[in-house]
Design a protein that fits this description.
heterodimer; A: mainly alpha; abc type-2 transporter like fold; 16 helices; elongated; B: alpha/beta; Rossmann fold; Alpha-Beta Plaits; 2 domains; 6-stranded mixed β-sheet; binds adenosine-5'-triphosphate; binds magnesium ion
Chain lengths: 399, 316
């Protein structure tokens, strides 16, 4: 247990930089969870809207109907207190925004003017209000464009309604297939796990292993009465402890932020565990080269950032060129991100259980292959230093 | 009867074409401080590594405590403490944790280990530095830590490979005294160095290596008596007539004379009262002389005479 204990002790003493990584990661995740992720802009969020039609013309009624057809109608009696209450307790009363179609809307539109057509009751510059304004702006500009092109007002409105509806449909196809049950936060949390697992594993496992494998230390250990196999097993056990603890920290953190896991989240948990093993075996390979701390840090940055970019953590896979993707497929991180996207519906991916299983298997195969590679490298490197290990239990020649 | 602790026979180690150990025969007895002396590259470290079974060798046998030594001879390894030239400790562990770690590779019992670690700390005088990290220790203290890590488990055989390289004289003396103390406490010591003064100071028996070859062995006096010159006498003489020099050269036990820059150098081989007889000749001719010094041979002279070259370069 001596070697194992020293391993853990050294890991603890190297943990300061790792803790910084973990804290920053959690801080970013919390910020992400609290704010709306960018992709929700693309989803067709239905707002609870109240419209007061002061113009009361065919055109303004058409707009009111159009708004209510796309959003949820919420009637609020038209007095200052009611409106304030409705907006203030938006989440409870179920009203996201209240606006007036100003008198003269129809005339202004016919004259091609698109400003000062609406009056918003503003509580606070909410995202819902901004979205409503954007949609109304788009609507009136479209009508103005059609009329400018020579159409009369009813035709322009009909065309606009058709165009806006159609465009929204196209835009909504992909994300809608994502599982609404799947927590939004996790789609990003597990995605960034690629970077954080690689960075943390390389910054924790590599320095500890490099220390334990230092030539002079190994020399001393080989002089002692401890069996080489026992020493190796203890180092292996120490590595496993470290890897599993780091992974658990992220899982517990995720569970706390999301209030537990359910359903497909468990597949993401499994996926991340397999990827933790991949990150660990990449660290094992890296530690074979006994790099000095600065070089090791550099290698950690290059590998964690490089793989993250390449495999679609920071840029969606669908936006990467075919050339990049064909290279990315050679790296395990690509398969992790692919499985993750299929779970979260991110990047237009569609859930496919069999394909996810295949991705996880590919990652596992990488982890295993890298582990075997480590054993090979160590065998070559350590016999090179001419240190005889317990394998050859007889001196070379006795003649 | 003295017991043999380490015995190597016909030990040959080759690195490719280079013969690092050439039929090395060592027979180290219990209670000795055995010195392996030789210039850089003479095979000292190679010999140690073979004895420790860290290195496979091409030919020969090694016995320790009367048993054949192999990489799997854990019962033998348990009784050996090793201190190498470079400091091998964990930067990440404190003085105490380091000693505990290396001691723990031999001693499993916790209570006993605690006591041993404590004794080792006291032995090297690091009581005030228990919680220090190696980085914070001065060079000399670091060496002491290195030694403590090697001897905490109270080995019966202690092997030191140039433990004093790049150490200041004060720390060096402390280390040498420590080694003698361990020896008095019952440990057999193998000590390698290319500093002949150190080896002369502490070793009870010395083997001189050159190119993997053992060229001489014995106590320092035995070694010195092996060579022809036993004493070199230097005398300041301002003006030395040639016939006086010839008369001195003709004295018994004088193997050579040399007169240069007002200095007369006389090499003697054995015999006694050489100095008195030389000075008598000078006085007999009323030749004035100044400072007189007499040098006993060093191991360097031994090495020089056997191999025809100096043990180590003068500037070292
Ligand atoms: N791994 C190796 N491969 C090839 N040659 C080696 C190796 N190790 C040592 N040698 C050679 O073997 C010879 C003996 O080396 P060794 O290290 O045993 O000498 P040493 O007496 O310990 O010298 P030093 O005083 O410098 O420590 C040297 O010529 C050295 O160059
Ligand atoms: Mg050496």
């Amino acid at each position: 247990m001596q070697v194992y204990k020293a391993f853990i002790r050294i890991a603890m003493k190297k943990s300061r930089s790792i803790i910084i990584y973990i804290v920053v990661f959690f801080a970013i995740s919390v910020v992400y969870a609290l704010s709306d992720t960018p992709d929700s802009i693309f989803t067709d969020t239905s707002l609870k809207v109240c419209v007061y039609d002061d113009d009361d013309t065919a055109e303004s009624r058409a707009l009111t109907d159009f708004v209510y057809s796309r959003h949820i109608r919420s009637d609020v009696s038209r007095d200052h207190d009611s409106i304030t209450d409705a907006l203030y307790y938006g989440a409870i009363s179920g009203t996201d925004c209240v606006f007036i179609i100003n008198k003269g809307y129809s005339e202004a539109l016919a004259a091609g003017r698109t400003d000062d057509l609406f009056t918003f009751y503003t509580m606070h510059g909410s995202y819902q209000e901004t979205m409503m304004q954007a949609q109304l702006g788009e609507y009136v500009r479209s009508v103005a464009a059609y009329t400018a092109a020579g159409e009369d007002l009813p035709d322009a409105i009909a065309h606009t309604e058709k165009a806006v509806t159609k465009r929204t449909d196209v835009r909504l196809t992909a994300p809608d297939t994502g599982d609404p049950e799947y927590p939004k936060m996790f789609s990003v949390y597990f995605l960034f796990m690629v970077y954080i697992l690689l960075a943390v594993m390389m910054n924790s496992l590599c320095p500890v292993l490099t220390t334990m494998n230092r030539r002079d230390i190994r020399f001393r250990t080989n002089c002692s009465s401890i069996r080489p196999l026992s020493g190796s097993l203890q180092i292996f056990a120490g590595s496993v402890t470290l890897v599993v603890s780091i992974w658990l920290v992220f899982m517990v953190g995720g569970a706390v932020m999301n209030g537990g896991f359910h359903g497909k989240c468990w597949i993401a948990v499994l996926n991340s565990f397999v990827f933790a093993l991949v990150a660990a075996s990449i660290s094992l390979v890296a530690s074979c080269f006994s790099l000095n701390p600065n070089l090791m840090n550099l290698a950690a940055q290059i590998i964690s950032l490089g793989l993250s970019f390449l495999s679609g953590v920071f840029v969606e896979q669908s936006l990467l060129g075919d050339g990049v993707l064909s290279v990315a497929r050679l790296f395990p991180a690509y398969w992790y991100v692919r499985a993750n996207n299929m779970l979260s519906g991110l990047d237009g991916a569609v859930y496919d259980g069999a394909e996810i299983a295949r991705c996880i298997m590919i990652e596992a195969a990488y982890a295993l292959a890298l582990f075997v590679l480590t054993l090979l490298i160590r065998r070559i490197r350590y016999s090179e230093t001419a240190l005889v290990s317990g394998r050859n239990s007889e001196p070379a020649a006795q003649n | 009867m003295e017991k043999t602790v380490v015995k190597t026979q016909n030990l040959v180690k080759r690195y490719g074409d280079l013969i690092a150990l050439d039929h090395l025969e060592l027979d180290i007895k219990e209670g000795e401080i055995f010195g392996l002396l030789g210039p850089n590259g003479s095979g000292k470290t190679t010999a140690i590594n073979c004895i420790l079974s860290l290195l496979a060798f091409n030919k020969g046998t090694i016995e320790i405590f009367g048993k054949n030594m192999t990489p799997a001879s854990y019962d033998i390894k348990k009784e050996i403490g090793v201190i190498m030239q470079n400091v091998a400790v964990f930067e990440e562990l404190t003085v105490q944790e380091n000693i505990d770690y290396f001691c723990g590779l031999y001693i499993r019992d916790k209570a006993q280990r605690k006591q041993y670690v404590e004794e080792a700390i006291k032995f090297v005088g690091l009581e005030d530095f228990r919680k220090f990290y190696p980085k914070k220790l001065s060079g000399g203290l670091l060496r002491r830590l290195n030694i403590a890590c090697g001897i905490a488990h109270k080995p019966k055989l202690i092997i030191l490979d140039e433990p004093t390289v790049a150490v200041d004289p004060q720390s060096r003396n402390r280390i040498l005294e420590g080694i003698q103390e361990l020896n008095r406490a019952g440990a057999t010591v193998i000590y390698t160095s290319h500093y002949m003064e150190e080896v002369e100071q502490i070793c009870t028996r010395i083997a001189i290596l050159d190119k993997g070859h053992k060229i001489a062995e014995g106590t320092k006096d035995e070694l010195k008596s092996m060579i022809f010159n036993t004493e070199t006498v230097n005398i300041e003489v301002l003006d030395l007539p040639e016939e006086v020099r010839k008369e001195i050269a003709a004295l018994p036990h004088i193997s050579g004379t040399d007169y240069e820059d007002g200095r007369l150098t006389v090499k003697c081989s054995g015999g006694s009262h050489n100095l008195i007889r030389i000075l008598d000749v000078l006085r007999g001719h009323d030749t004035a002389f100044g400072r007189v010094t007499s040098e006993l041979p060093t191991l360097n002279d031994v090495f020089l005479e056997i191999t025809g070259k100096a043990l180590r370069d003068k500037e070292e």
